[in-house]
Amino acid sequence: MEHARTPVVGGWFTEDGPGGEFRLLGTRCSACGSVFFPREDSFCRNPACGGGDLAEVPLSRRGRVWSYTDGRYRPPAPYVSDPDAPWEPYALVAVELAAERMVVLGQAAPGVTVADLAVGMEVEVVPGVLNEDADTGTLWTTWHFRPVEVGA
Hints:
By secondary structure, the chain is an all-beta fold. 0% of the residues lie in helices and 43% in strands.
């Protein structure tokens, strides 16, 4: 069965950005230039600005690790997961995006552990899969961060 790719949160990223690139999407205030992620579509969140004209903008594909940690246990309710499935530890990464100088949180790409990360290392945003629903044929997509290879 072909799986329908469905973003976990619509409008937060695109898989067909400039040049076919995967990109996080934010919004920029036309009055003060502030950029927001998650996106803001109603008003400028900058307390010094009264602007309300916000435009969607693709965010930097790369940034530097600001902080990281690992999830070694299954969170309690209301977290939803199959209690019979084995728990797989994962790394969470806080990344300061290159151009926007804002910190965005995301999961590390599969196979990337905290042993592979260091504060200040360059990473890039890549497409990821949060969950696959076999009953509906839905592949729930999200973003991940992956270290950039030296010289890439």
